[in-house]
Amino acid sequence: MERDVFLENLRRKLASAPSTPSAHPLPSGTGVPAVRWPEDDRPPVDQFLSAVAEHGGGARVIRSRDELAQFASDVIDEHGISTVVATTEPVIEELAGVLVQRGVELREFDGPSSAAADLGITGAMAGIARTGTVVVDGSAGRSPSLLPEVHLVLVAASDIVETPAEVWRTLPDRFDGRLPSQVVLVTGPSKSADIEGVLTVGVHGPRAVWIGVLTD
Amino acid sequence: MTPDLLTGTTLRSRAARALGDSSLTRVLRKTTSYRDGLRQQAESVLRNHDELVAAARRIRADNIAQLPALLEQLADKWEERGGQVFFAADAHEANAYVVDVALERGVEHAVKSKSMLTEEIALNDALEAAGIDVVETDLGEWIVQLAGQPPSHILTPAVHLQRDDIQELFRNVDDRGADLSDAPEELAAFARRELRRRFLQADLGITGCNFAVAETGTVTLVMNEGNGRMVTTLPPVHVAVMGMERIVADWQQLDLLLHLLPRAATGQDITVYVNHLTGPRDTGEMDGPEQSHLVIVDNGRSDMLGSEFREMLHCIRCGACLNTCPVYRQIGGHGYGWSYSGPMGAVLAPLLHAAPEARELPQASSLCGACHDACPVGIPLQDLLLGLRRRETERQAPPSEAAAWRAWAAAWSRPATYRATTSAAARLGRFVPPGLLPDGWTDSRAVPRPDPGGGFRARLRREGA
Amino acid sequence: MRRTALFPTCVIDTVAGDVGMAVVRVLRSRGHDVDVPDDATCCGQPGWNAGHVDEAAAVAKQTLGALATTTEDTICVPAGSCATMIRVYWPVLFRLVNDEESAVAAEGLRDRVREFSELLSEDDKAMLPEDDQATGTTPGPTAAVAATAYHHSCHMLRELGIETQPEQALQAAGIEPVEWDGERQCCGFGGTFAVKQPELSTAMADEKLEALEELEVEQVVGCDTSCLLHLRGRAERRGMQLRFRHLAEVLDPT
């Protein structure tokens, strides 16, 4: 149907709506209230680390190149990683180097077929302390954070905000109104409860998510 | 073809059938209680949840009142970013458009993430009729697709099936499933392997839309499994099919609703993935679809816009009203007879479904109001159900029933006849409202004992107190 | 002495004279001068819930007239759903039949209408000195207390927000109701729903009764006689020994 015809019909219907008395009339007011979370005095990074754990992920603060190497080693050992795909974000170059040193085969990301590795590594534009979420800009690649069984993601401690509102309400401004074709918020590993309500992990997306929080 | 559970049946017959399966009732009661409890727990964590619900109700009313302008803005933005937009007046137009897109691209295999709207318009049937293979990829939705059944819950489509049912279905998928046990982890791992193959071979990905944001032309999908990311990452063509009411003006409003939806739906503070899509793959990007189509569907919704049932367009399809409903927990989704069930389905049925049987669904409620309490956007569902009952009696009450209610009104709008009927009723010990099946009470319940004193007023006069 | 009009409701008038008498005795024992307006019949709820709005309005208008002409400060309604009908739905009902005058009269009545347990609770607050208000007392029997469950009726809980008052009244009478699964879940009565959808309605009652059976409860107390009649009818048919009593019967001083 033509757009104009479709919309004109809506305008006509809107204008013709009866006013029906209601026992539960619409509330009055304006604006969008802020969501009030429970008090939590801990620094955002501490909140973030515990929220990641609550949502089934693993997170660690990384203070040095040595700690980054140790983190990478631990992930490789834990999951028996032999291939890795990395987006081209600068933040993960150092990590990619560490992995290559450990003998892992590094695949440069150039499309979905290259993403079928054991491990995918990406950066994140932000973290959310309350929920343990990382915000991944998909323009660097949608697949590396999705197809591998394990996702390792690096986020700067200074990019961790306290609540989801600080991401959602600011997203258009962060990109001057022009969003990337995909922005995805990731909170822990893929989950399903579709079989008898029993929680199963890793149904389509990664079975494990590891987050390195980079301090200066 | 998805089987039609509605035509030629009645609510009583479907309910009786569901209630005859005691293991189904047990599963439903247990699961819905569990999920309803998770919801309440998650909502209680926020310090101003009630305020948020009230604001959401107001904001959804604004969204709907401004629908033409918001849809126009959304369509402009989506096109600006290289996407295509189609406005579909009804199911036929929507399906024909998607089939055309598929045929033009020579599509053989389509993968879908869960979308109740595509159930409503029977998109799979249309694609299959055009020779296109369609696979549902949400685990629960895939299970019911294999079972040849419609979903029995808008959030958890296979809630009515147990692990051994699923084991049996999976064993028949192919040889790889032959030795599967009934352990949920093993079944889920099998689904992962099988469906990964389908994702990689698919040339069309179809999704619904949880919320579109007019401000930036963004389609938001929430999910836990990740299939909605697969479907929008791997196939070269993405079609998002959205009910025209699933729109918000800006990211402030989206923020509010994204705090309410997962809590109401699954008791989560946030879903594992929140996927914000703005048009197709951009210049220089390595993956994502080359084409992104947005199909905006009316299919009866504009009639709601011009009616006293407009508020039903506020619904964000969270499923909380199903989980909290004392009727749903007895009979499950198939008892209602179509894909939308529970209180929201009972309201939508007579408004969106053409079958005459759908007009009976507002009777599937004791009007207890638990759904209103649970609704994250504050829809007074019981008021809408009452309104639909009124509309139905105005349209065509059975003559005997209409006559009985007239007789009731004539008798009870006068004190003398009221007293005569109540004292007679007291002697008989019967309080049966008129116009109803005489066996409706007594088949399963003892008759109230007669009042030897002849009713309250007679006794008060006689005994004083 | 407070002057209080009692709207007994059609269910109590017809098949629950005992409940009506108990309500009168409890109110009198607490110093109310109780009068039952002769011409009040039914609130119209059966027709309203079934979608027969003209018929519901005709019946409701009769009762509105009878209640609006009472001169008492308070109108006591010993049924949560009827009190809801009057306070929440009457103005809507009358507006739907374009009877604005009755709608306004109904709105004027709202502030005087009290559900039974709500009225008792307000009495307690009014009679007690400030510092005792939290505990409240209601005179009543204390001996031979049976294991008791309280059934929250839907409209009373969700539309009127009357949640704690009945349990406080029971506690003041020395009865501590048990907590149980589904105490806030609909019993399945729902007016005409109970006869139009008997299988569903019965399944809903069964779920509640099975929960009570496990707890070895002896009596179920509620504030809506219609719920209690439905549950009792089903329990009797199942051969259960449970008693079902209106709050007023439990508090009855005689």
Describe this structure in words.
The complex is a heterotrimer of chains A (216), B (465) and C (254). Helix content of chain A is 26%, strand content 24%. Chain A has six helices and twelve strands. Chain A has helices spanning 3-16, 44-54, 65-79, 93-101, 165-168, 171-174, and strands spanning 58-62, 83-86, 105-108, 119-123, 126-128, 133-137, 150-156, 160-161, 182-186, 191-192, 200-201, 208-214. In chain A, helix 3 packs across helix 4. The longest helix of chain A is centred in the middle third of the chain and has 15 residues, at 65-79. In chain B, helix 3 (49-65) crosses helix 12 and helix 9 (163-171) crosses helix 10 (184-201). Chain B is of the alpha/beta class and 465 residues long. In chain C, the strands form two sheets. Chain C has a four-stranded parallel β-sheet with strand order 2-1-3-4. In chain C, strands 5-6-7 form a three-stranded parallel β-sheet. In chain C, strand 6 (219-222), helix 12 (225-237) and strand 7 (243-246) form a beta-alpha-beta unit. Chain C starts with a strand and ends with a helix. Residues 131-137 of chain C have low confidence and may be disordered. Strand 9 of chain A pairs antiparallel with strand 9 (273-277) of chain B, so a sheet runs across the interface.
The amount of beta strand of chain B, in percent, is 5-15%
Low-confidence stretches of chain A: none
Gyration radius from CA atoms of chain A, angstroms: 22 Å
Q: Number of DSSP strands of chain B?
A: 10
Quickly give the structural class of chain A: alpha/beta
- Please give the alpha-carbon distance between the first and last residues of chain A: 56 Å
Identify the most extensive interface between protein chains. Answer: A-B, 82 and 106 residues
